[in-house]
Design a protein that fits this description.
single chain, alpha+beta, 2 domains, 6-stranded antiparallel sheet, 3-stranded antiparallel sheet, 6 helices, elongated, disordered N terminus, disordered C terminus
Length: 201
C-alpha cells in the first residue's frame, strides 16, 4: 500500500485531485479511465473521492494510463514559487530561470537592446533552440537572414547556424528553450553568461 500518514493528508488530497483533473483533461469518463488502468469503475470513483486507500500498484497503473509518472502525481512544490529576475542593465536584459524537463533549459527574458551589429558577435554551437515572443517585437539574426518576430510568433533553429537576437523598436519579452547541447554551448563560451545573452539566444 502507498501509506500516507496524517501529515501526508494534503499530499493524498493533491494526488486524488490530480488523477481526476488529468482524467477530465483527457476527456475520459470514470469508465474509460478504469478500463485503461484495469481498475473497476467503483474503485476508481472511491479513489477520486477519497473513500478508498490508494495502493502503489493502483498509482502506477493510473500514472501509466494517464500518460504521466508516479513522481509527477506525487510531486510537491518544494522549490520557491516566487523568483526574482536577474537584471543586466548593460545588455538591456532581464531574465528568469524556468523549470524544464531534464536536458532542457528554459529562460524567460525581457530585452531592450537590438541584436549586435557586428557579425563576429553572433554565436554558433551544437544544439537546437526554440523561442516564442511573449510581447513586443524581436529581431532574430540567423546567418545572413533577418527575421522579425511579433508577439505570439515562434522560431526554431539549429544553433550551428550563427545567430543572435534582440529587441526591435522597444522592449520585447521572449521565452527561449535550449536543448542540452545548446545550453552547454552558451555556458561554455568564455566570458559569456547564461543562454539568452544579447549576443545571441
Amino acid at each position: 500500500m502507498l501509506r500516507m500518514t496524517q501529515d501526508d493528508g494534503g499530499l493524498d488530497v493533491l494526488v486524488r485531485k490530480r488523477i481526476r483533473a488529468l482524467r477530465v483533461a483527457h476527456g475520459w469518463s470514470l469508465e474509460e479511465l478504469s478500463e485503461r488502468a484495469h481498475l473497476s469503475q467503483s474503485s476508481l470513483s472511491r479513489i477520486e473521492n477519497g473513500r478508498r486507500r490508494l495502493s502503489l500498484d493502483q498509482l502506477v497503473a493510473l500514472a501509466r494510463a494517464l500518460d504521466t509518472t508516479v513522481d509527477r502525481l506525487v510531486e510537491t512544490a518544494t522549490e520557491d514559487v516566487v523568483t526574482s529576475p536577474v537584471i543586466d542593465a548593460v545588455h538591456g536584459r532581464m531574465s528568469w530561470a524556468v523549470r524544464a524537463e531534464p536536458g532542457l533549459s528554459v529562460v524567460r527574458q525581457r530585452m531592450t537592446a537590438p541584436p549586435p551589429a557586428d557579425p563576429a558577435r553572433m554565436r554558433a554551437h551544437p544544439g537546437r533552440e526554440w523561442l516564442v515572443v511573449l510581447s513586443g517585437t524581436a529581431l532574430l539574426l540567423l546567418g545572413d537572414r533577418r527575421f522579425r518576430l511579433e508577439a505570439n510568433q515562434a522560431a526554431e533553429f539549429p544553433t550551428m547556424m550563427p545567430h543572435a537576437i534582440g529587441a526591435e523598436a522597444g522592449p520585447c519579452e521572449i521565452l527561449g528553450i535550449f536543448d542540452w547541447e545548446a545550453s552547454r554551448g552558451h555556458r561554455g563560451d568564455a566570458g559569456v553568461g547564461s543562454p539568452g545573452e544579447a549576443a545571441g539566444v
